[in-house]
Write a structure and sequence with these properties.
With 567 residues, this protein is an alpha/beta fold. The two termini are 44 Å apart. Residues 81-85 have low confidence and may be disordered. The protein binds adenosine-5'-triphosphate (ATP) and magnesium ion. Adenosine-5'-triphosphate (ATP) binds next to helix 5, strand 8, strand 10 and helix 12.
Length: 567
């Protein structure tokens, strides 16, 4: 028997360490699971389990840890992860330990969102997996869309996600070098300067027709290129790759390599006005930055041919380009193209509106970075587009915030009740049912707010248990009055939470839901409710996670407002 007792203790301690508390059923299941022969001894072992579980539930987490250290130290040894396997991420082709270089290349044209988090986390996890390096490279070659504010916002977002990069740079740092590479393209006659109108160019590409500019002599293109820096204005001329106007891959039909943009660049002002296209810049930059594995989303797949061809023609080192799927949420657009107009048209309050999938908004709503990382890693490296349910992110988050979320009472639809003969006028309540995150003193008074639905459902003469206070019985319906009837724990007594009227704090809770129904914006996707909560709310720091009892997890946004995180 002592051997079995040991086993029970071991399992109970381990279970309590993981979950804060343990219970008899779980332990019985675990014991039988490892030792089927005990199935016909349940009667004998059950009392042992009961005793041990009671003991384990009484001692603190520190004591549990101490017990494990003394008796079962092997439980504390972390199981080593297999070296080249991070959950969900397959090994990288051609990767050598210490040699892998990845990059995260955001364009500073908007606030970072969960899709960027996915890309950056995968870039970082692969770099870590191979003891490699991660470069953060601002892909800033379109001054019309880019703003200083966004460089900063992206850095703030990555810091929040705790993404560590080994180097930070801007594509615009290399503009002179990109010009040189363009000249090499022109000198090799791999590119030409086209002065056709935008509409003509588009029509020709559709109809697979070459224009006259394509047959220019190399020198003429060089002259035109020089003019792009002086005489030509925006829209007058572009450098085009000499591809194949008959290619089935539309990308290869003489795409743009350089264009004139007169708008001031956020970092370089009006020093430059000739800017490389995404396709040209990304290929050259990846190559010179020493990138070995370049990840991007699947919609860029058709651009790979151009990427590799440019590098081949310039005899430059070629990284390996790898695609993964774009991450999106149902009913929640994850793209700057859709997010920006929502904000500009005032449909949402800003980039941190809690309905949005921007990192600012997720943070404000109470989603923690660790949950985002776990969520992204759980999706793994898929190529098929992922429309994840938001609930999946929520469930990772819930597990993380539960142990630190302070439990507070909050009443949405208050009913006033006067209670006679309560035994005391203040009580101590635990801030968490199982974790040691402190207590608070709660003043009671004889008038409380109860949730109207708790009262409505009450049958005549039925007792109700006020959480932490004891049982009451309604003595009068109007005005509503009740009498304290003791503290006996009956399982059948319905429970209710309450807030003392004299110290009740009025706050607002914002409840976000999906901002889109299909393609349509839902203007009532942010509900606001006025509620009463305990005065202890005032003592919490902004950003504190709360679980309003019987309602759900929220995050304190300000003195007057909390935001609903999830159930
Ligand atoms: P958006 O549509 O939001 O402008 P983008 O791809 O233009 O997206 P970039 O700033 O250019 O945004 O993206 C930086 C990196 O993040 C790129 O590697 C891109 O592939 C990746 N990325 C952007 N959105 C997503 C997404 N929804 N899911 C996965 N990766 C994404
Ligand atoms: Mg972009």
């Amino acid at each position: 028997m002592s051997e079995i007792k040991d086993k029970i203790l071991r399992v109970a301690l381990q279970n309590a360490l993981e979950h804060g508390k343990t219970n008899e059923k779980i332990i019985l299941g675990k014991i039988l699971g490892t030792e089927a022969s005990l199935r016909n001894q349940i009667k004998e072992i059950m009392p042992e389990i009961k005793e041990i579980v009671t003991f384990v539930n009484q001692i603190s987490q520190d004591q549990i840890r101490q017990q494990i250290q003394d008796k079962f130290p092997d439980l504390l040894v972390e199981k080593p992860k297999k070296q080249d396997e991070r959950e969900g991420l397959p090994p990288l082709e051609g990767a050598e330990r210490g040699r892998v270089v990845t990059r995260f290349p955001p364009e500073p044209n908007g606030y970072p969102h969960i899709g960027h988090a996915k890309a950056a986390i995968i870039d970082e996890e692969y770099a870590k997996m191979y003891d490699g390096k991660l470069i953060l490279r601002f892909d800033d070659t379109n001054p019309e869309a880019e703003r200083l504010e966004y460089y900063a916002a992206i850095k703030v977002g990555l810091d929040w996600l705790e993404i560590k990069y080994d180097k930070i740079k801007n594509t615009s740092d290399d503009i002179e070098l990109l010009y040189k590479k363009c000249q090499e393209m022109l000198d090799g006659n791999y590119a030409y300067v086209c002065t056709c109108k935008q509409e003509t160019i588009s029509a020709n590409r559709r109809e697979m027709k070459a224009c006259k500019c394509r047959s220019l002599e190399m020198e003429q293109s060089r002259e035109r290129w020089d003019k792009m820096f002086s005489k030509f204005g925006q829209g007058d001329a572009i450098v085009r790759f000499r591809g194949d106007m008959n290619s089935n891959n539309t990308v290869m039909r003489d795409p743009v390599l350089f264009r004139i943009i007169e708008t001031k660049h956020p970092l370089l002002g009006d020093k430059y006005r000739v800017w490389p296209s995404y396709d040209f810049a990304v290929a050259i930059e990846d190559s010179i930055d020493g990138i070995t594995h370049a990840f991007r989303t699947k919609e860029y797949e058709l651009r790979n041919e151009l990427y590799y061809t440019i590098l081949d023609l310039l005899k430059m080192r070629k990284p390996q380009v790898i695609e993964f799927s774009r991450l999106g949420f149902e009913g929640m657009p994850v793209s700057k193209r859709i997010l920006r107009p929502l904000i500009e048209d005032g449909k949402v309050s800003g980039y941190d509106d809690p309905r949005l999938p921007t990192l600012e908004a997720l943070k404000r709503r109470g989603i923690v970075p660790e949950a985002i990382r776990k969520f992204v890693m759980s999706l793994g490296f898929t190529k098929a587009d992922t429309l994840a349910p938001f609930e999946s992110l929520e469930s990772f988050n819930r597990k993380i915030v539960d142990p630190t979320s302070i439990r507070l009472h909050m009443i949405k639809n208050p009913v006033s009740i006067r209670i006679k003969s309560l035994p005391s006028d203040s009580i101590t309540m635990a801030n968490h049912p199982t974790k040691d995150i402190g207590n608070r003193e709660v003043e009671i008074g004889d008038e409380l707010f109860l949730e109207s639905e708790d009262i409505e459902n009450l049958k005549p003469d039925e007792a109700i248990r006020l959480i932490g206070l004891g049982n009451i019985k309604i003595t009068n319906k109007s005005p509503l009055e009740a009498r304290y009837i003791g503290d006996e724990m009956g399982t059948s007594i319905p429970k209710a939470h309450w807030v003392s009227q004299k110290s009740a704090q009025k706050i607002k809770i914002l409840i976000p839901s999906q901002p889109f129904n299909g393609e349509e914006f839902n203007p009532s996707s942010l509900e606001e409710i006025n509620v009463f909560t305990e005065p202890y709310y005032n003592e919490l720091k902004e950003g504190r996670e709360i679980q309003f009892v019987r309602f759900g997890y929220c995050r304190k946004d300000s003195m007057l407002q909390a935001i609903y995180t999830h159930k």
